[in-house]
Design goal:
This protein has two domains: 150 residues, GAF domain (Beta-Lactamase, 2-Layer Sandwich); 70 residues, Winged helix-like DNA-binding domain superfamily/Winged helix DNA-binding domain (Arc Repressor Mutant, subunit A). Helices cover 55% and strands 15% of the residues. The protein has nine helices and five strands; from the N terminus they run ααββααβαββαααα. It has a five-stranded antiparallel β-sheet, with helices on both faces. A hairpin with a 5-residue loop joins strand 1 and strand 2. Helix 1 packs antiparallel against helix 2 and helix 8 crosses helix 9. The longest helix is centred in the last third of the chain and has 29 residues. It is globular and about 50 Å long. The two termini are 34 Å apart.
Length: 237
C-alpha cells in the first residue's frame, strides 16, 4: 500500500472535519474530530480544546486523553496557565520546555509534568476580534512545533472557529450561545455515560469514550443521544 503524503493526510483531515458539518450539526463530534486529527497529523502526545460559555467562563470541551483533560481542568480552576492566556490574549502561547518555564504558572507546571507532558502549544480559536476558545497541543518531549506544524494547528483551529460561527448560526449570539450551552450540558451527560461504560465493560475512560462515539456513529445518532440512552439504561455497550 502506498504511503499517504503529509499533504494528503492534512487534506483528508480537513475533509473529515468538514464531514461533521452536516444538517444535524453535532458540536461535540466536531470538536473531538478536531483534537483527534490534530494529534494524528501533528504527532502531539495529546490535544484538548477549551471554549468560553455564555457566562464568559472557559470549559474543557474535548480532550484526547484523561491526562490532558486533567491539566486543562486544573488550569481553568486556577484561572492561570498557557491555555487561559491564549484565550485571553487571542495569541499563540508556546511553552517549549515546561520544566524550564520558571514560576509563571506553578500549578500548570506541576500538573503537566506529573502527567508526563514536557511542552505545550496553545492556539487561539479566533475570528477577527472574537476569541471563543483555544486548541492545546501537548508533547511528551521538550521543544517547539515546526513552523509548518504551527501553521496546520492554526488552520485546524480556524476551520473549527468558522464552523461554530458560520452563517447558519448568523442570528449569531442567540444561536451560538444555544449551541455552546447545549454542548456544555451534553458534556456532563457524556461523562456520566463514559463512567457507566467503563464500569460495565471494564475499560478505561478513553476506551469508554471510543465505544460511545463508535456506537453513536454506527447507529446514526448524536453522541448526546447515545449517552442519554446509556445513562437511562435503554441501551448497553
Amino acid at each position: 500500500m502506498a504511503m499517504i503524503s503529509r499533504a494528503g493526510r492534512v487534506s483528508a483531515a480537513f475533509v473529515k472535519i468538514a464531514d461533521t458539518l452536516v444538517a444535524d450539526f453535532d458540536v461535540f463530534d466536531l470538536l473531538h474530530t478536531l483534537v483527534d486529527e490534530s494529534v494524528g497529523i501533528l504527532d502531539a502526545a495529546a490535544a484538548g480544546l477549551v471554549l468560553v460559555d455564555p457566562a464568559g467562563d472557559l470549559q474543557v470541551m474535548a480532550s484526547t486523553s484523561e491526562e490532558s483533560q486533567l491539566v486543562e481542568v486544573l488550569q481553568l480552576e486556577a484561572g492561570a496557565g498557557p491555555c487561559v492566556d491564549c484565550y485571553r490574549t487571542g495569541a499563540v502561547v508556546a511553552v517549549d520546555d515546561i520544566a524550564a518555564q520558571g514560576s509563571r504558572w506553578p500549578l500548570f507546571q506541576a500538573s503537566a509534568l506529573s502527567q508526563g507532558f514536557r511542552s505545550l502549544h496553545a492556539v487561539p480559536m479566533r475570528l477577527r476580534s472574537r476569541t471563543i476558545g483555544a486548541l492545546n497541543l501537548f508533547g511528551h518531549e521538550a521543544g517547539p512545533l515546526t513552523a509548518e506544524d504551527a501553521a496546520i494547528a492554526q488552520a485546524f483551529a480556524d476551520v473549527a472557529t468558522i464552523s461554530l460561527l458560520q452563517e447558519r448560526a448568523a442570528r449569531e449570539s442567540a444561536m451560538i450561545n444555544e449551541q455552546l450551552q447545549r454542548a456544555l450540558s451534553s458534556r456532563i451527560l457524556i461523562e456520566q455515560a463514559k463512567g457507566v461504560i467503563a464500569q460495565t465493560s471494564k475499560v478505561d475512560m478513553n476506551a469508554a469514550f471510543a465505544l460511545l462515539r463508535g456506537y453513536a456513529r454506527a447507529h446514526n445518532q448524536t453522541i448526546y443521544e447515545t449517552a442519554d440512552k446509556i445513562v437511562n439504561r435503554r441501551i448497553s455497550i
